[in-house]
Design goal:
LacI family kdg operon repressor (chains A, B); repressor (chains A, B); six-stranded parallel sheet; homodimer; alpha/beta; DNA-binding; Rossmann fold; about 45% helix; six-stranded mixed sheet
Chain lengths: ~325, ~325
DNA sequence: CTGAAAGCGCTTACAG
DNA sequence: CTGAAAGCGCTTACAG
């Protein structure tokens, strides 16, 4: 089944390829009515559809962008991708999705391959490594937007949650309910991953703001695997925390596994707030008080900024960090 | 910043474009050691990376496949996509993700655009419409694999859960626990969407197998919005069901919203099993008994089958329906 | 062992 | 108002 090409259409309509191409690109300026009709008919009869790859070769655009997430299984990433895809669909663009698994080697490989595929731009949740790679991209003015994470020394447009504010909202809510012994649970803080790091900062500032003394025993940070033991240890302190802020959905699951096992009552024995409005928040027993991220808006913004860069050939007037407001959703766990 | 092309490399290395191309494609058969080295050096110095679009134009491959899901926000779809992407990554392929939202018009648009982009194959969760479109594709031997849904009259390789078995497992578990009044909750059964339809069939067969009389009052099907009222009605029957099979995760959420609101105790007042091992199954109170789908295996299989088709130019010897076994995970709700 | 030439399917000045 | 020609960046017989 040989594909029909523009040449076939031209022959069938008795015009030149150029004229067909003009027609396809809506340059009807000087085109005769009859020519137009003949071409239209030929296209319909041959069921012709142009090869976008060939067009892209000439026009230097693949009408495709790449999105590199850590892992598409994370709900936040999924929502961001959905928003980006909706935006792209309106512009007749497609999106290639890549999972870097927080692995800088995979990240670099994907970026190189996407660029080899002439992708018009990339939205990435950067691993934080590959600084040289991104520096090079910056210098070339290749369109890139960062999502969720900042890389020190790299000035690239970035979409972020107001992470400090997120922690602030949680601590405020706890204080309002009378808590003073407020703990926080986070994945490892060794790497300066933006969301974790900033949320911790916000937590500390909020305590200070409320005149609560900072207690290092109430900060739990570690790999998911060791979280259970660490949690047990923290809750068995002579004076344990009465409220806990879970820094993301993964840590929330660990905490709930623990409270279920140990039959800890929420919020009586332990109040709980987490960042990310998980799917089961309102049906859980008790319903979970959460801090929601506007994931769809953030994804949409990332797409908008990227398309502006693409239009302006990467020469954005000013590189910005866009901060989005988190929202406290009070339910029963706080 | 003009991109460096194969011509630049050729000039720099003092050879012809052909030779550079041979080098790039590892056809070293007769290539002189020095030539090789000179090219290698030139590539490194110019930081050359080939334009895959141009290569694709000649080779008639975009090393890209399309995946059309109903909605990437569904966990099952996400897992399937992740498995497909991992598979593609090993083959140096990329995947374009599209959300058809169960809208046949969007579905058709995506398929047309993906094909115009010379995508090498498509994995789709078909809406069930666009029968003519798929018939045409079939006749052209264009590589397509269906996921999750069958379309009557279209013989295309399809990956499915053994849906009857899924319902069977649930009913068996209920019967084992002494239940005889077993209900089922499903989205609308009007359209013959494969999973719903087959799971209902399995439910009926299972009842028959256990000698339980089929009671139409225990079958609830409807839009998500009206489910709550219908649920209330069913539970207020003179003789209400004592166990419910939720046909997917969306209906599960509705049921749990209801039971939470009405303080129905699970499993004492109502036993519950749902298809899809949701993320909160083990931390819910009570932990949920579920039927898990092997989503990753299913996604991987879809990719394997598609790549076989691509290799064989769509001329697969035999079109098959691949059935995957569901797994009963007994927790506390049954 | 390597190069000149044609071609993949388009677009785009330019000429007439 | 329309066509011939060159070119986008590759690959691939074929010749030598």
């Amino acid at each position: 089944m040989k594909k029909t090409t523009i040449a076939d259409v031209a022959k069938h309509a008795n015009v030149s390829k150029s004229t067909v191409s003009q027609y396809l690109n809506q340059r009807y300026d000087y085109m005769g009515e009859q020519t137009k009709e003949r071409i239209e008919k030929a296209i319909a009869e041959l069921k012709y559809s142009p090869n976008i790859l060939a067009r892209g070769l000439k026009q230097k655009s693949s009408t495709t962008i790449g999105v590199i997430v850590a892992n598409i299984l994370h709900v936040f990433s999924t929502q961001v991708i959905r928003a980006i895809e909706d935006f792209c669909n309106e512009k007749d663009f497609h999106v290639i999705v890549c999972n870097a698994d927080d692995d800088p080697v995979k990240e670099k490989r994907y970026i190189d391959m996407l660029r080899a595929k002439q992708v018009d731009g990339i939205i990435a949740f950067p691993t934080g490594e590959n600084v040289e790679l991104y520096k090079g991209i910056m210098e070339e003015n290749y369109p890139v937007v960062f999502m969720d994470r900042l890389i020190p020394g790299i000035t690239i447009n970035t979409i972020l949650l107001d992470n400090e504010q997120a922690a602030f909202l949680a601590v405020n809510e706890f204080v309002k309910k009378g808590h003073e012994r407020i703990g926080v649970v986070s994945p490892p803080l060794t790497q300066k991953v933006t969301p974790r790091f900033e949320r911790m900062e916000g937590y500390k500032k909020a305590l200070e703001h409320h005149g609560i003394e900072f207690n290092p025993d109430y900060i739990l940070s570690g790999e998911i695997e060791e979280m259970h033991t660490k949690l047990k240890k923290m809750m068995r302190l002579p004076v344990p925390p009465t409220a806990i802020l879970a820094i993301n959905d993964r840590t929330l699951i660990e905490i709930l596994t623990y409270t279920k096992e140990e039959q800890v009552r929420i919020p009586e024995d332990l109040a709980l707030i987490n960042v990310d409005d998980v799917s089961f928040a309102s049906i859980y027993n008790p319903a979970l008080t959460t801090i929601a991220q506007p994931a769809f808006e953030m994804g949409k913004k990332a797409a908008e900024v990227l398309f502006d860069l693409i239009r302006d050939k990467g020469l954005s007037a000013d590189v910005k960090v866009y901060r989005f407001k988190p929202e406290l959703i009070v339910r029963e766990s706080s």
